[in-house]
Amino acid sequence: MIKLSRIALISLAALAAVSAAEAAPKAEVSTEPPLARAVREKLSGLPFYGVFDILEYEVKDNGTVELSGFVFRETLKKDAEDAVSKVAGVKQVVNRIEDLPWGVQDDEIRAKVYLTIYRDSMLSRYGTATDEALANGVGYGPRRSVFGPMGIGNPFFPGFNPSGDYGIHILVTRGEVILVGNVDSEGDKNLAAIKARGVFPVKKVFNELTVKGRKPEVPEPPARPTKRGVVAVAE
What is the secondary structure of 105-123 as a DSSP string? Predict the structure, then answer.
């Protein structure tokens, strides 16, 4: 009788363990191919990839990687190509990344839009830990690097382009702004656009932010800067 009771207890424990395992949420299994993941990680880890750049890529079946996007710092274009070419499995890199034009007014807009978005208490979480701290009242500190120990360097300094894992990228050309990246909700997407539109002297804002886990019912044609620096909407 005692032996049967022990067997029954073991069976109940095993059944409970199986039930708990089935009830627990299953971890998401990534469907991203290993080569594409390696390319993405290599690009996102570039030290000078900043909030004013956007790097995009496409991995072909034959091992060719096509790079595209726009960069504020000219050297980032070559850095991206060199980094991806060293990824195991990449046979060839086609570099179609374009440089964004420089200008006093565009630099002013970059700084103002960046501060407007990333000093907002709701949107600062799409930036770095420093952005979140500054948005929550930490003052500016001495500049020892791009990001100081207690704050941030002068955002109006020519060439200023904060690097790091930014969820909202800000592309500026000829007074027009394109917001690119991923946010958690439609409300955050709209708020970022409202913030950018309120900045003087911004002429126009194209909101290309996507909401994570959601696909637009009717995709809108993307706005992209041309080589002349004029924002063109694809037809």
Answer: HHHHHHHHHHHHHHTSTTT
Phi then psi for residue 45, to 5 deg, are -90, 0
CATH code of residue 45: 3.30.1340.30
- Going by C-alpha positions, the residue among 187, 170, 182, 178 that lies closest to residue 112 is 170
- pLDDT confidence of residue 220: 55
Q: How far apart are CA 86 and CA 117, in angstroms?
A: 35
DSSP H helices, the chain, are 2-23, 34-44, 74-85, 104-118, 129-135, 186-197
Six-digit token string for 169: 């990228």
Q: Based on the domain organization, do 89 and 133 belong to the same domain?
A: no
What is the model's pLDDT at position 186? 97
**What distance lies between CA 64 and its chain's CA centroid?**
23
Q: Is residue 116 part of a domain?
A: yes
The total of other beta-carbon atoms located within 10 Å of residue 5's CB is 9
Give the type of residue at 145.
Answer: S
- Give residue 214's pLDDT: 73
Which residue type sits at 142? P
One domain, residues 93 and 109: no
pTM above 0.85, yes or no: no
- Can you name the residues that pair with 66 across neighbouring β-strands? 58, 94
Identify the helix (H) or strand (E) that includes residue 11: helix 2-23
Q: Are strands 64-71 and 54-59 parallel, antiparallel or unpaired?
A: antiparallel
Which residues of the chain carry a pLDDT beneath 70?
A: 1-30, 138-152, 215-235
Whether 95 and 132 share a structural domain = no
What is the rounded distance in angstroms from the CA atom of residue 119 to the CA atom of residue 95?
34
* Residue 234: per-residue pLDDT: 36
